[in-house]
Structure formats: structure tokens, C-alpha cells
Amino acid sequence: MSMNEAKIFLSQNPTPSRGRWILALAVIVMITTAAYFYFSNDLDKPVFSTLSIPPPSIVQDPLPTSPPLVPELHPPLFKLPNPEPAIDPRKAIAAIENSLLLHLPFTSSLDDHSSYHRIMESSGAVSVHDGAAHFPGDSFLTWPHIPLANRPFACAVWIRPEGKVVGYGLLEQVEGGPGKHLHLLMRDPDKPYFGFYLNDLRSPQSVTSEMGWTHLTFIFTGTHQQIWINGLLVIERNSDPFRGEKGEMRIGKAPGWNNVPTQCFKGAMRDLRIYDFALSPQQIRILAGLNADVPQNPEKPAETF
């Protein structure tokens, strides 16, 4: 019903009933609302969008004018372990000082610096100067017996041989018989050799005077003999323990066999250490002056028996 039709209807019924007035008012409201939506320029917006303040339910934060310069960093799904602190070589060596059976620094004297303070029995013509003990090739040092039988142990020493190396002796302790003659030397003619007598290990590498100062470590782990040169494990083998319970400890002494060329050590020696346990690879690297935090020889040598 249009506006004109509504006026005509009312003119024809001058005294409408209450129901007719309500009906007429409803028609006018419908016509007015339809006209508003028809002529509105914002037909795609809801009615409340024309209000000055939108309802709280649809208020949005303003969009950023530009992206952030640094993207947001999210925490990782897991945390990496903290790196272990670097090992202090002095503290690491001091921690095992009580395990020394004999310690001969040879920096200024021939004295034993272990907690035992063993008394040397004879020195021959061995002298100390320039921070090392010098062996003329016909003398050695004699110390009381050191208990190494039926136990792990380690012997570490720096050497600088002189002349042509032929069977130079480093250390000997003899009771006699198989398994009871401890001897450390270079033989055949200049390869580090670790023997208990008929229970022996020879290095595949030589040590010569041209090499200068060289660090040697001889280890009995309780089940294996090992030879390390300059912090590297060069050979090992299964072994029964040393069983000698008697005999003096002689430094620089060769066995004196009649079928193998040997002689007393000729050259310089320093920082000889005998421990009552098998040193770890890390401890050996420290004694050899290497970085304790970087493994130098992760695999066993090819010459393992």
C-alpha cells in the first residue's frame, strides 16, 4: 500500500477504529524504513555502522602501519646443554698428585717430589742443568723398590735422546723370571718398548734424537699394555699383569741382554712420573702439553693385538 492509498483509505473512513489506526501506523513505518534503505549509500554495512561509536563487540585494534623491523623470536622447543667449562691443566694434575708413587721433575735436583719422598740410592754421573737430568749413556739412577705388581699403573716421561738411538734404557725393575722383569726402553733399535719379560709390547713408531723433546706414556690398565707417544695411543695389547714384587727401581738403565743391543740412556730426561692407576686419555694429553678438551686419538690404533 502506497502513501496515497493510505490517505484515500483514511479519507473514506473518517472515524476508524483503534485497530485500523495501528494498521495504518505500521504501514507508514514499513514505507519509511524501505525508503531509507533504498536511498542509503552504505547498503553493505550493518545499521549500527552509521553510529558514531561502534558496539564494543566489534572494536578492533588499529593495524600497524608497517611490519616490525625485527621478527618476534620464539623460544626453542628444547634448550641446548651448556658447554662444559674448559679444564684447568694445573688443577687436573694436582687432583691426582696423591696417586704418584714416584715423581722426578728433574728441574733443579734429582729429588723425589711425590708424597713418599723416596731417597735415591745412587746417581752415577747423572747431572741436572737447564731444567732436565742429563744421562751420559753409562749411568743410571737407583731408587728403592716401587710396588707395581698385580695392579694398574702408568709411567710418563719427557725424553730428548742424543746420538743414534740403539736400545736406550728408560726404566727397569727386576725380580727375575717371566712376568717379573719390568723394562721400558727403545729397542729394534729406537722403538718404545713396554715389557714384563715374555709379555711385551713394541711401538710401531720410532723415537729419534732428531725429534727433540718427546713425551712417552706407558700404561697397564689391568688388562692391557699401552704405549702413547706425544699424547697419541700408538699401540696396545691384551696382557697379564706385572708380577714382580722385589727389585730396585732403576731410571735410565737398560736390561743388558746379550742377544738384544741395549745401553743406558743417553740424553736429557724430565718430569718422570709413576702413578698407581691407569691415566685417562685426557690426563695423558695434559701431561703431553696438549689441549685436554680436544680428543687427539678417538679410535684405537690399527696395531692393536
Short key terms for the protein model shown above:
305 residues, single chain, 8-stranded antiparallel sheet, 15% helix, alpha+beta, 4 helices, rod-shaped, 14 strands
How do you describe this structure in short?
The protein folds into two domains: 50 residues; 199 residues, Jelly Rolls, CATH 2.60.120.200. Helix content is 15%, strand content 26%.
Q: Count every helix, treating DSSP H or I runs of 4 or more residues as helices.
A: 4
The CATH architecture classification of the largest domain is: Sandwich
Shape label: rod-shaped
SSE class: alpha+beta
The portion of residues assigned to helices is 10-25%
Characterise the protein shown here.
- With 305 residues, the chain is an alpha+beta fold.
- It folds into 2 domains: 3-52; 89-287, Jelly Rolls.
- It has 4 helices and 14 strands.
- The protein has helices at residues 3-12, 18-39, 89-94, 281-287, and strands at 100-104, 127-129, 132-136, 141-143, 153-161, 169-174, 181-187, 191-195, 200-202, 214-220, 224-229, 232-238, 249-251, 266-275.
- Strands 1, 2, 3, 5, 10, 11, 12 and 14 form an 8-stranded antiparallel sheet that branches.
- It is rod-shaped, with a radius of gyration of 48 Å.
Q: What is the element layout, followed by pairings?
A:
Layout (H helix, E strand, L loop, with lengths): L2 H10 L5 H22 L49 H6 L5 E5 L22 E3 L2 E5 L4 E3 L9 E9 L7 E6 L6 E7 L3 E5 L4 E3 L11 E7 L3 E6 L2 E7 L10 E3 L14 E10 L5 H7 L18
Antiparallel strand pairs: 1-14, 2-3, 3-14, 4-13, 5-10, 5-14, 6-7, 6-13, 7-8, 8-9, 10-11, 11-12
